[in-house]
Specification:
13% of the residues lie in helices and 32% in strands. It has 180 residues and is of the alpha+beta class.
Length: 180
């Protein structure tokens, strides 16, 4: 199965979950048009409080639908957009991508992967125990963050459910994803 966009979501308000849409428009250097987290500089409240001029490396949040499947199997009621993502994919190991990977969404949009979403306590306010469920440990005991990845829009375009997702790996040394 090739990778696809399973859902797209956004919210103009600073709320945890985002509403599913028929499509979203990504703008280069900004993010999803109409989304509260779109902007050239940070938009997340905690980051704005620390330094409102730092670049926004979290313009677009992506989660793999397989995480939703895993969480539902564990008893959580989650669906696309519920954990604040803009783009839900299926058929792609987002967490295994190196930093700098470019994701080609639909016909034109390109999002460059900047890092991992760092899960926060808002997950537990949404559903008790959810934060723990999106954190794991690898064979070496290192923390594994499963709550998705973040990126910046390199090339704008419209993105809709059913669109294909192409992957362009970065040249040179591959850097693992770190929280951003």
């Amino acid at each position: 199965m090739s990778a696809i966009v399973a859902a797209v979501s956004l919210s103009a308000e600073h709320v945890f979950s985002k509403e599913n849409r028929d499509g979203i428009r990504l703008t280069a250097g900004v993010g999803a048009v109409g989304d509260t987290h779109a902007g050239q500089t940070v938009q997340h409240r905690s980051r704005v409080a620390r330094d409102p001029d730092q670049p926004n490396l979290r313009q677009v949040h992506l989660i793999h639908a397989e995480l939703h499947d895993e969480l539902r199997a564990a008893g959580f009621a989650v669906a696309a957009g519920d954990m604040g993502e803009n783009v839900t994919t299926r058929g792609l190991d987002l967490l295994g991508l190196p930093a700098g990977t470019r994701l080609c969404l639909g016909g034109a949009a390109v999002v460059e992967v900047t890092g991992l979403r760092n899960p926060c306590s808002q997950l537990d306010r949404f559903q008790p125990g959810l934060m723990r469920a999106v954190l794991g440990r690898d064979a070496d005991g290192n923390v594994v963050r499963k709550a998705g990845i973040m990126g910046v829009v390199v090339t704008g375009g419209d993105v809709r459910p059913g669109d294909t997702v192409g992957v362009e790996l970065p040249a040179g040394e591959r850097r693992p994803l770190e929280p951003v």
